[in-house]
Amino acid sequence: MRPILGFLAGLVFGLGLILSGMSNPAKVLNFLDIFGAWDPSLAFVMGGAVVTTFLGYRLAWRRPAPVLLPDFDIPRRGAIDTPLLAGAALFGIGWGLGGFCPGPAWTALPLAAPGTLVFIPAMLAGIWAGRRLKSSPAPALRS
Amino acid sequence: MLPVTPTDFTPWASLGGGILIGLSAVMVMALFGRIAGIVGITQGAVTAADRDWRIAFIAGLIGAPLLWLLASGSFPAQTVSGNLPMMALAGLLVGTGTALGSGCTSGHGVCGLARLSPRSLAAVATFMACAALTVFVLRHVAGGAA
Fold first, then answer.
1. Which helix (H) or strand (E) is A4 found in, with range?
2. Per-domain residue ranges of chain A
3. C-alpha distance from A112 to closest chain B C-alpha (Å)
4. Chain A neighbours among B 37-96 (CB < 8 Å)?
5. What ipTM did this prediction achieve?
């Protein structure tokens, strides 16, 4: 049951990315180009997604536990620290360069554009590196 | 230089797509009790004890354009840069940054803002500003084509 419903949730997410235009890097880059070819569509994606999630979470949390796993696993309210802000800054630069964030990159995979086939392995390598960096003892990246 | 592909303003399709993304995030919370952050799900697909649904979720993301193709007769419109060194750098930065910063557009942007998390709000403001600045520099400062 878990894999079937997991697949279904991924499919709905992916269709949302496609319908919204978020899966097209050209649309993302134009959204980010406020002083140029600005296309504000993605503000509507964000608005629709956040409001739906805000309302739906409150319904989901009425149950004592999720349907298919024993407990809710929700991030604790931590501090706004250096890894958070440095990571977000690096991500923003990469997003502005390629127009891909992680979800749209996965949905782009079957279209097999050369840029996508280069982006995804690089992203996976980056995730591995980022995890190591986050758990490293480097004082500059510890909160 | 960075070529600019014009795109149409699509408020209704984008709103509808956003609602679908939100419904998926609610499914993940109601069924699995987890945040629907794509980077978190990707990491957990390798390392987490509950990796079965995570692997299936990513398979669903990859399956979406195929379903779109079956239903509409064509793949979704998409323009990906052919500048491969730049795309490699972009992928590396996106992966490193989202793992270090504990979230991406979905984890911080959708789920974090819906939870009214101050950490996510700070992350979203930072990555939006950095992304817009990057596009500004590429298109309008570094002799961009716009």
1. helix A2-20
2. 1-74, 77-143
3. 10
4. 38-39, 42-43, 50, 52-68, 75-84, 86-96
5. 0.95
